[in-house]
Amino acid sequence: PQSPHITPLSGIQKDHLDPLLMSYFEPVNGVVLAYRNTTFESDCARIVGESPFAHVWVSVEFLVWRPVKGMLLKGWVNMAGASHVGLLVENTWNVAIPRERIPEGWRWVEEVGMEVDGDAAAVGEGEEGTGVDGGYWVDGDGKKIEAFRKFKVEAVKAMGHMVSMEGSLLGVEKRRKKPRRERAK
Known about the structure:
Elements: H1 8-17, E1 24-25, E2 30-40, E3 46-47, E4 54-55, E5 58-65, E6 72-81, E7 84-89, E8 93-98, E9 107-110, E10 115-116, E11 119-120, E12 135-138, E13 148-159, E14 162-168, H2 180-184
Organism: Tuber magnatum
InterPro entries: RNA_pol_Rpb7-like_N_sf (IPR036898), RPA43_OB (IPR041178), Rpb7-like (IPR045113)
Domain RPA43 OB: 67-170
């Protein structure tokens, strides 16, 4: 059994505002991260029509995360396939980097005889939908692509209460400075 709300304000917070947290909310065009300063617009509620519920207007301040095209973010490499790199932003939001937005010098390295769930698997026999292609990406120096990576947001998609992004790794990597001796020449 649910316990009754102690106050009307706690009821509004629990039933109406808390469910918005960490989800896309169309009226604010973004993901609600937090809220504060919840106040009633009037001292009394109204019964509208034959509704058994009391209606009351409240004001609230939302902290909203609104990723937009062109924004630079950092994500953790959590998935890779020959056609993409997958990133996770703030351990919450998924980003797909399609092959055409991966730097030209990077290459896909296939792992032969990779094990999937303890069984030896042929290359490309990863489980459907898991993103396991049996390999990894390396940069132009042959270093495995892992950990955090900067990316540029290319598209933001909101479906229901979920947000996902497409990104690009092109032009966001730090350029190496030439050694001092080479610059002096």
